[in-house]
């Protein structure tokens, strides 16, 4: 039987097998190592944040006490100035009101022994 | 808001030229800006503890400025004493007299000590504070020198009340976390 064709046939020895198997070589550190490293870095960071918070608290304490130690000196200076202005204001009042009968210079409008600073400033 | 005006005199300064009545003894004001005061604050607080507490108790009694003028003068003189010892300002005339009753070891604050005071360290520290937003943590190096000098010469040491026991105080830490922002 001859039709003039030649049947195509596999190469001698057959085709090579199909490479369907996964071929991914393992590179770099494993999952446990990566997650462990991330956890370690985070742990160090939080530890340092905690340390920093404690230190910040101490810095605030230092700042507060630095101010507390200076309060008396500054208050004393302010008091002298306030007293000076108060006395000057009383002297002005005395001079202005000298003709008014029964005027009490510096009499507080409040019925209390507590110190009530004047809310009026004459410029 | 009860008023539309701010509590500030914008049109003219609040100046009263009248002097303090002569019945009040004169005392020189400290005349220091904030950075030197802050630098000296813990030494002022330690050296002047008694007069300061006396003054604050007096203020607690009565807030009237006239009530605590005497205690206030003591406070200012005491602070100036520390200040003069640190700074030895020549133009402050109210130098503390030397304390004759105490032995030389503990008469730490007397005129004799002024000569060997800590001017250089003090200047270095407060100028550092001035340049660093007055953050103590930015100026630990000059502060350490100042504390050392004040401790050896004036026998005052910086202690922060309420610091946790058993660990170095924040100004004595070897490796603090908060320092200057720029290295």
TrEMBL record, chain A:
InterPro entries per record: GRIM-19
Q: Does the keyword RNA-binding apply?
A: no
* Sections of the chain in a coiled coil: none
Cellular localisation: Mitochondrion inner membrane
Identify the keywords attached in UniProt to this record, alphabetized.
Electron transport, Membrane, Mitochondrion, Mitochondrion inner membrane, Respiratory chain, Transmembrane, Transmembrane helix, Transport
Cellular component terms, GO, for this chain's entry? mitochondrial inner membrane; respiratory chain complex I
> What residues form the membrane-spanning segments?
30-50
Kindly give the membrane topology term recorded for this protein. Answer: Single-pass membrane protein
What does the sequence similarity comment in the record state about its family? Belongs to the complex I NDUFA13 subunit family.
Q: What biological function has been recorded for the protein in this entry?
A: Complex I functions in the transfer of electrons from NADH to the respiratory chain. Accessory subunit of the mitochondrial membrane respiratory chain NADH dehydrogenase (Complex I), that is believed not to be involved in catalysis.
Protein name from the UniProt record: NADH dehydrogenase [ubiquinone] 1 alpha subcomplex subunit 13
Native source organism of the sequence: Saitozyma podzolica
UniProtKB/TrEMBL annotation, chain B:
The record's keywords, sorted A to Z, are: Disulfide bond, Electron transport, Membrane, Mitochondrion, Mitochondrion inner membrane, Repeat, Respiratory chain, Transport
Q: A GO term (biological process) for this protein?
A: mitochondrial electron transport, NADH to ubiquinone
Tell where it localizes: Mitochondrion inner membrane
Q: Does the keyword Repeat apply?
A: yes
Q: Where is this region: Disordered?
A: 160-183
Q: Which family does it belong to?
A: Belongs to the complex I NDUFA8 subunit family.
Provide the function of this protein: Accessory subunit of the mitochondrial membrane respiratory chain NADH dehydrogenase (Complex I), that is believed not to be involved in catalysis. Complex I functions in the transfer of electrons from NADH to the respiratory chain. The immediate electron acceptor for the enzyme is believed to be ubiquinone.
This chain's protein is named: NADH-ubiquinone oxidoreductase
Organism this protein belongs to: Saitozyma podzolica
């Amino acid at each position: 039987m001859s039709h003039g064709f030649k049947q195509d046939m596999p190469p001698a020895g057959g085709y090579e097998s199909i490479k369907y198997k996964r071929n991914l070589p393992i590179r770099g550190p494993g999952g446990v190592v990566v997650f462990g490293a991330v956890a370690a870095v985070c742990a160090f960071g939080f530890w340092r944040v905690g340390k920093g918070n404690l230190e910040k608290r101490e810095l605030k304490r230092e700042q507060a006490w630095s101010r507390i130690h200076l309060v008396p000196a500054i208050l004393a200076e302010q008091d002298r100035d306030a007293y000076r202005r108060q006395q000057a204001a009383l002297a002005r009042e005395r001079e202005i009101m000298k003709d008014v009968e029964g005027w009490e210079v510096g009499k507080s409008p409040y019925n209390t022994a507590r110190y009530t600073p004047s809310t009026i400033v004459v410029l | 808001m009860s008023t539309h005006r701010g509590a500030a005199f914008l049109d003219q300064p609040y100046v009263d030229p009248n002097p303090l009545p002569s019945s009040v003894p004169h005392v020189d004001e400290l005349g220091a800006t904030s950075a030197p005061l802050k630098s000296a604050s813990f030494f002022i607080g330690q050296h002047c503890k008694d007069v300061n507490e006396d003054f604050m108790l007096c203020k607690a009694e009565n807030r009237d400025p006239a009530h605590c003028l005497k205690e206030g003068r003591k406070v200012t003189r005491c602070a100036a004493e520390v200040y003069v010892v640190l700074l030895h300002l020549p133009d402050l005339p109210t130098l503390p007299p030397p304390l004759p009753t105490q032995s030389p070891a503990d008469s730490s604050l007397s005129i004799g000590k002024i000569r060997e005071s800590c001017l250089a360290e003090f200047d270095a520290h407060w100028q550092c504070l001035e340049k660093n937003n007055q953050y103590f943590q930015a100026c630990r190096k000059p502060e350490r020198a100042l504390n050392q000098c004040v401790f050896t010469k004036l026998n005052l040491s910086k202690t922060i009340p309420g610091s946790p026991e058993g660990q170095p105080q924040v100004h004595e830490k070897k490796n603090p976390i908060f320092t200057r922002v720029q290295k």
